[in-house]
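Q: I'm writing up a methods section and want to include an example of the input and output format. Could you take the sequence below and give the corresponding predicted structure tokens, formatted cleanly so I can copy it straight into the document?
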Amino acid sequence: MSGKTTENIPHTSECEARPHCSLLTARASSPEPRASDLFTIFRPMGGIIVASLTALYALLFLFFIIGLVRTHRYKGPKATPSVSVVVPMRNEEEFAQRTLEALAEQDYTGEWEVICVDDRSTDSTREILEKFAATHPRFRVLSLPADLPQIASPKKRALESAFKIAKNEVLLTMDADCIPRKSWITAMAGRFVDGVSIVQGPKQNNGTRSMPHLYQKLETLGYTAMEAAGFSLGHPIVASAACLAYKKDLFFQVGGFGDLINLSSGDDDMLIHKMMKVPGTKVCYNLDKDAVIETAPVHTWKQLFNQRARWSSNGTNYESKAYILLLTLIYTYYIWMFVSPWCVLFLDFPWQWCVFSILPKIVVDFVFLSIASWKLHSKRRMFAFLPVELIQIPMIVFCVPAGITGMFRWK
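A: Here is the clean output for your methods example:
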């Protein structure tokens, strides 16, 4: 009786008798989710995002290419307004003498002066300036008090201090390490015709064939070309105070630098953006070969990183929210280009996401810089294109957060 009963009762294991045991067994037997499984879900969304960022970059540079093609050398009559050249200097004993001598040789026939601002230098800059001005009547030296409070942008304070004592109609700015050509003032002042109130001139880096110098030469060509494109289309996006002129009345009409004084940079593009809000403001880009100003490069990667971080420090401080959004999206694109090769190698990302985001940038940049090198007579700089293109991506990725968080220093 007992034996038959045992045979008729279905055999149930201890595990099957416990409901939760089968669930654990199922979980143990199922494979761990892989990155490729996740991409099955997120692939369409990720592909759209990568394609959108790439398209945004291409469209932005299409805008620059159109503007650059429309940039032409002016051949009409030239104006001769009165000009005040302003040069801020801090610890510039290495460059001061040669800059002063180059300015003294200017052939401008109109009225002009040079105001050199010694911004609390701790080297022999002040002595060099005062000695030179003593024998050159056109030159004046403005020495700022050593006990001035430290602010985010001492350069803007130095500039505005000089603007307040400037005697002439046009304010023309340059940096202390720049070398102007003999007809530089003539070329820049001559473009103030037909109601033009802002003139941007080109700049180029001199230097050796070292990789930091080659990088700066080509990148400066790119920035200069972007300036030319924006000014030529009447919508300046970037600008450079190393070769920039504007009407003194316009500067004070917008309140001078105003709140920009509390930002570490912005003495160029942010100021121009303010000026463009004034109805009737007309701008032009000066392609005259005599308007080109040469600027000295920094010599090491550390110095270059510090400079680029300082340039990036105001990226979130522009008044236009749309412009900040544009910069943010472009920066996001750079981050993706930097991380995508590693994602492909180690996280099983689709290789197309990497190749078809980086390759369009290379093509677009090559076309843009080729046109720029032709327009600005700098074709030899294109020999460094590929290494510069590869270095630029991590440079921007790391410089932007360093700039925003203040990890840089002024002289």
